[in-house]
Specification:
heterodimer; A: about 575 residues; alpha/beta; Rossmann fold; Aminopeptidase; 7-stranded mixed sheet; 5-stranded parallel sheet; 22 helices; about 40% helix; B: about 80 residues; mainly alpha; Non-ribosomal Peptide Synthetase Peptidyl Carrier Protein, Chain A; 4 helices; SGNH_hydro_sf (chain A); HAD-IIIC family phosphatase (chain A); HAD_sf (chain A)
């Protein structure tokens, strides 16, 4: 990671070609260096952060004045930093009998700040939780004394998590765990605080910026979706082809423990929706044997979405995996103990992330924890089903090969779709899909659950969500369209995105038929679409012309009078 | 380490930290003589000097510095 001075040098660079995101930073201590670290690190991550920084200690004034600079600025993300030192200062000034209510009062104030911002702005709020300070007034007894500062601080951190779990636009940036990683001595430098009112040391700032940007990247749809594992000496100890199934290291003895714990970690990732694939130089049957027969293996074949074990080079195998999963290389992580393979993959597939695993496997996990590879801003039931979906997709791909033409294949799938407006059941998935869809996404607007709720209640919007089922299984909710009433005649397609899992099934035609029917029923004469190009959505460049829309720069217009239903083999699920 | 050796190294730290090759630093140089040397930069200079010389300045020392010669005083004092 670059140090602060290196990040500062970035400030002189040309940001003009980078994606602009507007950040507002408000703190109760001095934030100038934090702002510089964010801006500088943003450059390396491909962002032009347009940052508005509140004057020192202006959080409440800015938030509670509706005409304040904060609201004029209209940020995409509001970063709030209330420091533990100021919290301690408050505690110190309170009368003894009020110490027990510190956490509750602070939490109420934070909730009010959040709600006020949320009412005024369409922005995500990032809040730094509290790094621990033990003032050692009670010693260990602080842990059983509600009025101790440590008790109140920890309670506040816990209550913040509870609050964040209920407020969909509130995200906590966990600087407390960051302090645990690097140690308090490296976080806080008393002399600097005394002379500058800055609580974070020069060396800690890049780490905070990094953690913050991880979160911002996830908010804007950049996160990892898949981990690809090497096997020998990565997933288990030893070489299966040479050592045999009895002699590989896995289980509770010796070095095997490290691999068992590693596998538990991968299994947890899989359960939370990360796709797990295997890429190994091995004979396939030999490589699969431990997954099928070894009693101590935690990962089993049903956990693996795509299994590639052969003697071809790994870059080619990873490209194969990418084709089957149909996700960007930049959303993949490749874990391999062998530096040669790592470099080979890095050189051939620059976008994939390939961590420099430590030489000693016992260090794998701590190293991986620290990298924070798998940031996310949502979690739904669908995530837990993802592995199965991709396995079914592999089966479908096999079936596809049996049919001579596309039409027969599609008919044979017996597809049906459940069409619904947004409701409280599908809201989490709709919001999540808006964050995950990059390729088949016409305008790439990201929605939070709160945004989706607002749309579902608005009279100016009509919402559609589509599922797709076939005889192999249910893909779940895979497509979303949001129509905005522009005037009595025209419906504007504010958003149309679809999961790439269901490409080439005729879903586009089905969706268009559905919205045209709706538009006609409600007396509209035209549907108007727009394509906003991004680095990733080239696939839908000609989406509207292909569907028969006329170009009327920068929009595409479909007249409903002469519309003929588009052919497809999907029926509406009753 | 002699005063002139310390001055020489301080000069390099200034050039590197302030990101300006053309800075001249003498014992008599004051913050007001260098455009970039504001209170924020001062924090970075202190941090860089502490790392380079492997010393820790007291907050009171930092506040009392009037020019570079006094910084050198602090460093040589801390080094001994």
């Amino acid at each position: 990671m670059k140090n602060f001075l290196q990040l500062k040098k970035n400030l002189k660079k040309d940001f003009s070609n980078l994606k602009t995101i507007k950040l507002a930073v408000l703190g109760d201590t001095a934030t100038q260096f934090l702002v510089q670290a964010l801006k500088g690190m943003g450059y390396d991550e491909g962002f032009n952060f347009d940052i508005w920084e509140a004057d020192f200690n202006q959080i409440e004034r800015q938030v509670h004045d509706p005409s304040s600079d904060l609201y004029q600025f209209k940020p995409d993300v509001v970063i709030l930093f209330k420091s533990s030192h100021k919290l301690l200062g408050k505690y110190n000034k309170l009368a003894m009998e009020k110490h027990t209510s510190l956490a509750k009062n602070e939490l109420d104030a934070i909730e009010t700040i959040y709600s006020t911002i949320n009412d005024q702005l369409n922005a995500k709020v990032v809040y730094y939780n509290y790094t621990e300070i033990d003032d050692s007034v009670f010693g260990n007894y602080a842990n059983k004394t509600e009025s101790s500062f440590l008790f109140q601080l920890r309670k506040l951190n816990y209550e913040l998590m509870v609050l964040a779990s209920k407020k969909s636009n509130l995200f906590l940036c966990d600087v407390s765990s960051l302090q645990n990683q690097v140690g308090k001595l490296n976080v806080f430098q008393p002399s600097m605080y005394t002379s500058t009112e800055m609580v974070w040391s020069i060396d800690f700032l890049p780490k905070v910026a990094n953690k913050t940007i991880d979160l911002i990247k996830a908010i804007f749809g950049k996160f990892k979706k898949c981990v690809i594992l090497d096997l020998d000496n990565t997933t288990w100890g030893g070489i299966i082809g040479d050592d045999g199934i009895e002699n590989i290291h896995i289980g509770s003895l010796g070095i095997g423990k490290a691999f068992t714990e590693f596998q538990y970690w991968v299994k947890k990732l899989k359960n939370r929706g990360i796709i797990v694939a295997v890429c190994s130089k091995n004979t396939e049957s030999v490589a699969k044997e431990p997954f099928e027969r070894h009693p101590d293996m935690i990962l089993r074949l049903e956990d693996i979405s795509v299994f590639r074990a052969n003697w071809d080079n790994k870059a080619d195998n990873i490209r194969q995996i990418q084709r089957i999963l149909n996700i960007g290389f930049d959303s993949m992580v490749f874990l391999d103990d062998n530096p040669f393979e790592r470099n080979m993959v890095r050189e051939n597939i620059p976008d994939i992330q390939v961590p420099e695993l430590p030489e000693d496997p016992t260090n794998y996990l701590e190293y991986l924890y620290e990298l924070n590879l798998f940031e996310t801003v949502s979690f739904s039931n669908e995530d837990q089903e993802r592995t199965k979906l991709y396995q079914i997709e592999a089966e479908r791909a096999k079936a596809h090969q049996k049919f001579a033409n596309e039409e027969d294949f599609l008919k044979n799938l017996e597809m049906c779709s459940d069409v619904k407006a947004f409701n409280k059941f599908n809201t989490p998935r709709v919001a999540q899909l808006s964050q995950r869809s990059n390729q088949f996404n016409l305008r790439t607007i990201r929605y939070s659950e709160a945004d989706i709720e607002k749309i579902s209640k608005s009279d100016d919007y009509f919402s559609f969500s589509f599922t797709l089922e076939d005889k192999y299984g249910d893909n779940g909710l895979i497509c979303v369209v949001i129509l905005q009433k522009e005037n009595a005649n025209v419906l504007f397609v504010e958003t149309w995105f679809m999961s790439c899992r269901v490409l080439k099934r005729g879903m586009e035609n089905f969706v268009l038929n559905t919205i045209v029917d709706f538009a006609k029923e409600h007396g509209f004469a035209q549907i108007k679409g727009e394509y906003i190009p991004t680095a990733k959505n080239d696939m839908v460049k000609n989406h509207y012309p292909n569907l028969g829309f006329e170009e009327s720069h920068p929009y595409f217009i479909l007249d409903l009078d002469n519309y003929e239903d588009k052919e497809n083999y999907i029926r509406i699920k009753k | 380490m002699t005063r002139s050796e310390i001055l020489e190294q301080i000069k390099e730290i200034f050039v590197e930290t302030l990101d300006n090759e053309e800075i001249t630093v003498e014992e008599s140089t004051k913050a007001i003589d260098i455009d970039e040397w504001d209170s924020l930069m001062h924090v970075l200079l202190v941090d860089a000097m502490e790392k380079h010389f492997e010393v820790r300045f007291k907050a009171s020392e930092i506040q009392d510095w009037k020019d570079v010669s006094e910084i050198i005083d602090s460093i040589s004092h801390n080094l001994n």
